[in-house]
Amino acid sequence: MSGYDDRDGRIWLDGKLIDWRDANIHILTHAMHYASSVFEGERAYNGKIFKSRQHSERLHRSANLVDFQIPFTVDEIEAAKVETLAASGLTDAYVRAIAWRGAGEDMGVGSARNPVRLAIAVWEWGAYYGDAKYKGAKLDISKWKRPSPETIPCQAKAAGLYMICTMSKHAAEAKGCSDAMMFDYRGYVAEATGANIFFVKDGEVHTPDPDCFLNGITRQTVIGMLKDRQIKVIERHIMPDELESFEQCWLTGTAAEVTPVGQIGDFNFEVGALTREIAKGYEKIVRL
């Protein structure tokens, strides 16, 4: 397969569809130097983007949190996503919307005079963790920790916040793992590098309180599914020494969907009935 910069197709950029290979930016784009960029990862199923408007609204919130305004309304972003998905010819696809400070009059930390740009790309993307989605992912434990909300806008889906995630995932893959679990700055269990995490114990579900990391849209969807099934969900701080006591584990995210976890470091988990039920239920709900 060719690289993501060398494909047939169309990308929506600043209000119009252009050829995929022409969707380029200048080397002095502010976002490239100072990470002034926010994005959304979304999936379309049967030609419809799941929770599309929630993603567009969050894109606006993320931009506001990192101090810029997107020059397109939520309705305009929604229409652009529909247009781009149609141009792709795909019905099941990954959708990436990204907004950033471009090249302009400023080239330093400050960039208030630079234009804000918006792009939307659509491509075919299968299971994020490959066959781990069915047999259970193997996770490393990252040396990097999710920072304090006093140091970052932790509820923004901002590009710069993923630097330690990339480093953690690369280290995990070098050890033969699919991903890494991260602790937060206090030492509590936080999340994986691009997905939220859930645990099962005695018929109840425990998941970290998202007080210093993104409260994912898929996470919220799965919590709703569990409550609809009358399964108790406990959002709380989880200590590392509790990992040994949990029976099942799974990850949630737009890319990850619902992926069972078989191992985190030295701790093993069953790919059990509840994990499979939620994974199957999620696959059904996104196609309604």
Q: What is the molecular shape?
A: globular
Low-confidence stretches: none
How far is the first residue's CA from the last residue's CA? 31 Å
Query: Helicity level, as a percent range?
Result: 25-40%
Total strand count, please?
15
Query: Strand fraction band?
Result: 25-35%
- In terms of quaternary structure, the protein is single chain
- Calculate the mean pLDDT score and round it: 97
Q: CATH topology of the largest domain, anyone?
A: D-amino Acid Aminotransferase, Chain A, domain 2
Q: Which CATH class of the largest domain?
A: Alpha Beta
Domain module count: 2
> Helix and strand string, N-terminal first?
EEHEEHHEEHEHEEEEHEEEEH
Describe this structure in words.
The chain has 2 domains: 10-123, D-amino Acid Aminotransferase, Chain A, domain 1 (2-Layer Sandwich); 132-285, D-amino Acid Aminotransferase, subunit A, domain 2 (D-amino Acid Aminotransferase, Chain A, domain 2, Alpha-Beta Barrel). 26% of the residues lie in helices and 30% in strands. It contains 7 helices and 15 strands. α2 crosses α3 (74-88). The radius of gyration is 19 Å and the shape is globular. The two termini are 31 Å apart. The model has no long low-confidence stretch (mean pLDDT 97).
